[in-house]
Design goal:
This is 5-oxoprolinase. By secondary structure, the protein is of the alpha+beta class. The protein has 16 helices and 37 strands. Among the domains are: 117 residues, ATPase, nucleotide binding domain (Nucleotidyltransferase, domain 5, 2-Layer Sandwich), CATH 3.30.420.40; 101 residues, 2-Layer Sandwich (Dna Ligase, domain 1), CATH 3.30.1490; 61 residues, no CATH class. The longest helix is centred in the N-terminal third of the chain and has 31 residues.
Length: 666
């Protein structure tokens, strides 16, 4: 029997599968952005053509970018129309938003346009206070009076429903009896701060029809191929959720795609005994970085979907807040398909990507603009025929650079070199965001490089930050899909408490554990472990830091962890009371993990080539097939089915027992 994971990227769709016998399979096909499920099915078709019967597939795991792409305005992906029913007087919370402005000194700047227009926002009489006491019950007659004016999906968001959702529950029941599809805020998140809770609920409502129809189409398509296996989806936290959970809270899937790679890097680091690592993923469209501490990727609950990105950072106040756990990733427009262009005689690289169609010029599919892949090809860092069978046209890549070099008044090879330098600097931005800006020294981390282009650029990126060791796993080009196979099923729930850290919070944690256990058991799974967190702040502050909490609850340990993290992040501590604002519990159901299998093959030299290395110029490099035993010294290029590893002079590449290539400075 086989477990299959399929990751849809902007340029390629990757499949990684393992059988109970320990066999593995890798597939890489071009993505189909307008209909992403076609790329998924193409990858599965190629996998089945290798002699696997559909009935032998007993689990399918999927990572999708459909939710993100819908907010980015991709054609054919339309957000649903949403109506808002809220406490009378609160109709314009989503218009007022927060004081945050995307551009601090732009006094004419505009906040993001609310997802619900004024004519579809309705207030009804009801009131619950912050203690959960019902001040005024729901006015049912008023709710029935506005019902004929509601359209699309209805988001019900009442004031303080996190403390007591009784009025929301009643409103939802009435509207559902009238035939409406309803998303209630207490089912989305049980946290205070009305704007963030309302926003999370409305994002869920806007995505619900799109994500539901996509997942149901995919399930039916798999069944038509004879695959009856259950389908799980990767959430932004890196955990797996059932399609039922994904359809009810689709905002969890916003960063589904990149999460799998970070989970894979965390599992991989833990297995190799690496305590602190930097996960670096470079694909065809973007490059992503995340930090792994003690075998776990770092998480954040501060995320905005559909907002602006500047130098790899989400511009706060430019998007719609979503209060779910997300892997703390930094992402920049730096992939193999990133286009180089001229602006008033100055070289620019990105943010536009050639994508899967037409792709880089060297693909021969009609692309005429030079990309990072084209630069690597003309500089001898990539062969003209990849082990996967993909043929690259060096003549077309050179032609694209000749055209750009004329606009820049430079030589085509010099322009290609500048493209590699510029893209390396851009990827460095992502690394700085998740390390230096978080108080972490990147030189003390081990770099785990994956993605189709990651191992090709890893050593030169590592040199920027003084990183001395790089790990390139087997199947690096489809490593995100491998990571998905090692994701556990995770259901999370949070609620506001607003108590001093010294108070007994154990009953509140136990209440959440019981609630999330019920959710897991309704999906037919048992809970193997609970994880606890708390959003903590000083009493004089307005915003929080997330800190791990113990079972049973220990106020001393939580306070100590908070102060250590606060000092590491901001450089100081305060002598004031510490407050726990929110608590969260994650229920985890373990999946059987899959490992990477090494192979007994010595380095095999397959040729020599003149290749350009950053900071060194052109050098004669030895080209090798991927090996599972022994070591080679740079300058060298190691070819694999789904990626290429660049080994500059001064570096050694050594194969470890599980097939990993460890690059270290000589």
């Amino acid at each position: 029997m086989w477990k299959v994971a399929v990751d849809v990227g902007g340029t390629f769709t990757d499949l990684y599968a393992v059988s109970r016998k320990g066999e593995s399979a890798r597939v890489k096909v071009l993505s189909t952005p307008q209909s992403p499920e076609i790329g998924v099915l193409n990858a599965i078709d190629e996998f089945l053509e290798r002699g696997v019967r559909p009935q032998e597939v007993d689990l399918v795991i999927h990572a999708t970018t459909i939710a993100t792409n819908a907010f980015l305005g991709q054609k054919h992906l339309k957000l649903a129309e949403v109506s808002l029913v809220t406490t009378k007087g609160m109709e314009d919370i989503i218009e007022i938003q927060r004081q945050k402005r995307p551009n601090l000194y732009d006094f004419t700047g505009k906040k993001p346009k609310p997802l619900v227009p004024p004519e579809l926002r309705f207030g009804v009489k009801e009131r619950v206070n912050f203690k959960g006491e019902v001040i005024e019950p729901l006015d049912v007659s008023e709710l029935l009076r506005i019902a004929p004016n509601l359209r699309g999906i209805v988001a019900v968001c009442f004031l303080h429903s996190y403390a007591n959702p009784v009025n929301e529950i009643k409103a939802k029941e009435i509207l559902e009896r009238l035939g409406f599809d309803v998303v209630a805020s207490h089912e989305s998140t049980m946290e205070r701060r009305e704007y963030e809770r309302f926003s999370t609920t409305i994002v869920n409502a806007a995505l619900k029809p799109l994500v539901s129809s996509y997942l149901l189409r995919l399930v039916e398509a798999l069944k038509s191929k004879g695959i009856e296996a259950p389908l799980f989806v990767v959430a932004s936290s890196g955990g797996l959720v059932t399609i039922e959970e994904a359809m009810s809270r689709p905002a969890q899937l916003i960063e589904s795609g990149p999460a799998g790679g970070a989970v894979g890097a965390a599992y991989y680091a833990k297995k190799l005994g690496v305590k602190e690592a930097l996960a670096f993923d470079m694909g065809g469209t973007t490059a992503k970085a995340a930090v792994v501490i003690n075998g776990e990727p770092v998480l954040t609950r501060e995320y905005e979907v559909g907002g602006e990105v500047h130098a790899g950072r989400l511009v706060k106040g430019s998007g719609y807040p979503v209060r779910y756990p997300f892997i703390d990733l930094a992402e920049v427009s730096a992939g193999g398909g990133t286009i180089a262009w001229s602006e008033n005689g100055i070289l620019r690289v990105g943010p536009i990507s050639a994508g899967a169609n037409p792709g880089p010029a060297c693909y021969g599919l009609g692309g005429e603009e030079p990309t990072v892949t084209d630069a690597n090809l003309v500089l001898g860092r990539l062969p003209e025929r990849l082990p996967s069978g993909l043929k690259l046209r060096k003549d077309l890549a050179l032609k694209a650079f000749e055209k750009l070099s004329k606009e820049l008044g430079s030589d085509p090879i010099e322009v290609a070199e500048a493209v590699i330098e510029a893209i390396t600097e851009e990827m460095g931005r992502a690394v700085r965001i998740v390390t230096i800006e978080r108080g972490i020294d990147p030189s003390e981390l081990i770099l785990i490089a994956y993605g189709g282009m990651g191992p090709l650029h890893a050593a030169e990126l590592a040199e920027q930050f003084g990183i001395k060791e790089i790990l390139v796993p087997m199947g690096a080009g489809v490593f995100t899909a491998f990571g998905m196979l090692n994701s556990d099923v995770k259901y999370s729930i949070t609620r506001s408490v607003v108590k001093e850290v010294t108070e007994d919070l154990e009953p509140y944690f136990l209440e959440l554990e019981a609630a999330v256990r019920r959710r897991m058991e309704l999906s037919g799974m048992s809970v193997d472990r609970f994880e606890r967190v708390a959003d903590v702040r000083y009493s004089t502050q307005g915003w929080t830091l997330e800190v791990k909490a113990d079972k049973p609850y220990s106020p001393e340990k939580l306070a100590r962890r908070f102060e250590e993290l606060h000092e590491r992040r901001y450089g100081f501590k305060l002598d004031v009371p510490i407050v726990v604002e929110n608590i969260g519990v994650t229920a985890i159901h373990y999946v059987n993990k899959v490992g990477l299998k090494g192979f007994d093959k010595e380095p095999l030299e397959i040729g020599k080539t003149e290749a350009w290395f950053m900071g060194r110029g052109f050098e004669e490099a030895t080209v090798y097939e991927r090996f599972g035993k022994g070591e080679v010294r740079g300058p060298g290029i190691i070819m694999d089915y789904d990626t290429t590893v660049l080994v500059p002079s001064g570096w050694i590449a050594k194969a470890l027992e599980d097939g990993t290539l460890m690059l270290r400075r000589a």
